[in-house]
């Protein structure tokens, strides 16, 4: 069997492609791009909520938020490792991110002016991440699929902590309830945009689905997120800011309005409210950490030289 035929057969039988296997160059490139964007999103995603760690209203909330933000760092690291199994170089991926040559999720370019944003990010953003990522646990590339299993378990903790925080605020004062509603109003549409452009404008989807990297289209996942979130909003007592949102008995799911796709384009192209700030901070952290990387390399070289001497 030719290498291409073996690859096609593995995909058709729903088995996993592993790093040692032959794969088409397009498959490798698509995966590196997707996994790198995903890793960058986890790392940049630490910033909007990280801003609240020093200002969390109680020790309990601080401990929870610290754990959550730290989990996101871990997700980024598993994903950079998965990209390395495809031959990508992690330092190069970081350079691409801070040089603006590789993207991350549009959602992390929005500001977090109130503590209710921490709750709404957990509920919406981690909730949307779960919709996107649960099907990736069955992605055709083994290291990516396996990283997703653990990440998804942690994302469900993130979503619950967000929802629990909002439930607590909704049982509080009028001012707290209006903080929650205000955060819901600001995050709803950007969260729907997290699933990417509509299927009619998503040229790579068909190939990714044929390779079984992706299992559902952007619009299918967006619909799933809306259907999951509506009853949660009712229970919480908040209004989702979409006058067109209603149950469709005919379709068996919710109808909803159209996100502002021009806004998504602008934010992806670098012109969102916080793009410049997010990248500047990431660049500072990378430059500030240069001495740690140098020290670690010098130490590794010293140990290698010692080992060589004692072997001699
Ligand atoms: Fe994450
Ligand atoms: Fe998360």
TrEMBL record:
Keywords: Oxidoreductase. Transmembrane segments: none annotated. The keyword Ligase does not apply. The lineage of its organism: Bacteria, Bacillati, Actinomycetota, Actinomycetes, Kitasatosporales. It comes from Actinacidiphila oryziradicis. Residues 285-312 are annotated as: Disordered. This is 1,2-phenylacetyl-CoA epoxidase subunit A. GO terms for molecular function: phenylacetyl-CoA 1,2-epoxidase activity. Pfam families: PaaA_PaaC. InterPro entries: Aromatic_CoA_ox/epox, Ferritin-like, Ferritin-like_SF, PaaA, PaaA_PaaC. Residues 293-312 have a biased composition (Low complexity). GO terms for biological process: phenylacetate catabolic process. It comes from the Bacteria. Its EC number is 1.14.13.149. NCBIfam families: PA_CoA_Oxy1. GO terms for cellular component: cytosol.
